[in-house]
Amino acid sequence: SDRPEIQEEISKKDDRLLTLLKDVYVESRDPPVRVKDGGGEHLPRKQEEKRLTKLGHLGELDVKKVPKGKISLVEALTLLNNHKLQPEVWTAEKIAVEYSLELKEVHSLLEFFIPFAVREFPKDTKKAI
Q1: Which of 9, 114, 123, 124 has its CA 20 to 30 A from that of 23?
Q2: Do the beta carbons of residue 112 and residue 92 sit within 8 Å?
Q3: What tens digit of pLDDT does each residue of 23-80 get?
Q4: Which domain does 66 fall in, by range?
């Protein structure tokens, strides 16, 4: 940058190179598409039907849309907590309808995934622990 002869050489127009460049012709072709016989596994799929998530106060932490038949993490925690607090209101049938899930999957979810509870011990019992 401090040598002016280099800057002059860079900005100089070279007519010989320009005429050579005009003679260049580039032709590009995509390779032929090969169809693999995979039994239809590469066929285009039907567009997945999605639903808006049912988000409460944790909405900023979660996704906004999920495929039908699936739930987001915040929804899973919410429905498990609702069932834990009010099992007679939030039955497996109601959860299945509310979140567009299969009933057998909801039964498995309620059976095998139990939200934990945080408990604080009173200060006077800490010595007993």
Answers
A1: 9
A2: no
A3: 888 888 888 877 665 555 555 556 566 666 665 555 555 567 778 888 888 888 888 9
A4: 50-112
